[in-house]
Specification:
Elements (H helix, E strand, L loop, with lengths): L1 E10 L3 H12 L5 E5 L4 E8 L2 E8 L5 H9 L3 E9 L2 H10 L10 E2 L5 E7 L9 E6 L2
Parallel strand pairs: 1-4, 5-8
Antiparallel strand pairs: 1-5, 2-3, 3-4, 6-7, 7-8
């Protein structure tokens, strides 16, 4: 079951500059940062109310996020992430409803703050890339 919005991902060319800007404007400090080499990004999280902004900088020119930043000419909203109580079950439910999975199954998050995650193709949600996560408890 989807429990709410976990975070909104914003792809950025420079995570240092972006973090400084978002912290200053929102008045909230970065709570954590992680280097997700397997996903080709470095991510920083800034809390806002009961959700977060995830700033993601590509770690290499050949990653999907790098191509996304290049196509947009700078920072842009990359994805919406929904928190779920069971990533695999929710991914299967959405697949059964016609959504296309980008990950073959829920992936164990060994690099970041979540227990598991899954990605759904942007065509499934009218052009919006969607991530599902199950938070660690």
């Amino acid at each position: 079951m989807i429990l709410g919005v976990s975070h909104v991902g914003v792809a950025v060319p420079d995570i240092g500059a972006a973090t400084e800007l978002w912290q200053r404007l929102l008045g909230h400090p970065e709570t954590h940062r992680f280097d997700a080499r397997r996903q080709g990004v470095v991510a920083a999280f800034i809390p806002v109310g009961n959700t977060e902004i995830e700033l993601i900088q590509p770690t290499g020119a050949d990653s999907g996020v790098a191509r996304f930043v290049e196509r947009r000419g700078g920072a842009a909203i990359h994805h919406v992430c929904f928190q779920t109580d069971d990533t695999e079950a929710e991914a299967r439910r959405l697949e059964g409803a016609g959504a296309r999975l980008l990950t073959p199954k829920a992936m164990v998050d060994t690099e970041g703050p979540f227990r598991s995650y899954a990605w759904l193709h942007q065509e499934s949600f009218g052009g919006v890339l969607v991530e599902l996560v199950q938070h660690r408890t």
